[in-house]
C-alpha cells in the first residue's frame, strides 16, 4: 500500500514535470518563432529602407545615382596643362573650362556613360564626364540653375541650342591656333575679356574655343529663354535670371520694371539685349559661372571622390 502511494506520488510528479517541460518547450519555440519573425521583419525593413547616403562617394557610384540633372553646369581645370594655366591666369580663376551635362544612363536607356557637351579646340563636341572626374590631375565642380519654371522641356532646349552648334568647326593651323590663344590670353589680361573678344572679331578671327567654352554655356541659356519669351511661354523678366555676366545683367530691367512695357516692346527689348551684348555673353568665363549666385553649388570631384558642397568658399577650402 505504501509502495502504491509512493508510486502514485512519483507518477503525479512525472506528469507535472512533463507538463512544465512541455510548457517550457512551447515558450522556447514561441520565443524562437518571435525572434525569427522579428529578424525577418528587420531584414525586410533593411531592404525597404534606403542605404545611408554617405559622402564623399566614389565617382562610379555617383554617376550611377540620380545626382545629376540635364543642363547642370560643369566647371573644371587640368593641372600641368599650359593652356589651362594661361586661362586661369588670364581670368583669375581656379577653373579653365566649362561644359554642360547633356545625357547619361539615368536619363536615357541605351546610354552607358554620362556625357557633357562642350566647346573645345576642335569645335563643339560630346565628352564622357568620367574622363574629367577620374583624371587625377583635374578637379570638377558642378552647379545647377534652379528656377521653378526651368522644367525638363526647357532643360532640353538649352541643351538643344548647344547641340545645334555641334558641327561648328575651327580649322586652324596648329601653330596659328596656339599663337592666337596665347595672344588672346594676353589681351584678355591687359584689356579685359570683352575688348579681347571684340579685337578678335575686328580682325575677322574666331575667338579660340578654349576661351569661349563658358560663353557657349551662357548663350545656351540665353537663346533658349529668348525662344520661350518670343512664344509667350516665359515672361521677359526671366531673361535676366539666366545672364551670368554681372555687368551685362545690369543692362536689363528689374522684374518689376518690365510691367511698364507692353508685350511687343518687352519681347523686342529682350531680343535686342542679346545683339547689343553679344561680346559680353560670348566672353563669359568659367569664373563668371563660378561667381554667379544664379547657379547653385552642388558637387566637387577630386581624386576619384565626389563631395557635396553648397558655397564657393567651401569649394575653395577643399582646393587649398
Could you characterize what this model shows?
There is one protein chain. This protein is α+β, with helices and mostly antiparallel strands. It has two domains: 1-49; 57-319, endopeptidase domain like (from Nostoc punctiforme) (endopeptidase fold (from Nostoc punctiforme), Alpha-Beta Complex), CATH 3.90.1720. It contains 14 helices and eight strands. It has helices at residues 2-48, 59-64, 82-91, 129-133, 152-163, 174-191, 193-202, 209-230, 238-241, 246-249, 263-276, 278-282, 286-291, 312-319; strands at residues 57-58, 73-78, 97-103, 115-120, 123-128, 138-145, 295-302, 305-308. Strands 1-8-7-6-2-3-4-5 form an eight-stranded antiparallel β-sheet. A hairpin with a 2-residue loop joins strand 7 (295-302) and strand 8. The longest helix is centred in the N-terminal third of the chain and has 47 residues, at 2-48. The protein is globular and about 50 Å long. Mean pLDDT is 78; it is low at 1-50 and 170-178.
Q: How many helices does DSSP assign?
A: 14
Radius of gyration: 32 Å
> What is the count of structural domains?
2
How many β-strand runs? 8
N-to-C series of helices and strands: HEHEHEEEHEHHHHHHHHHEEH
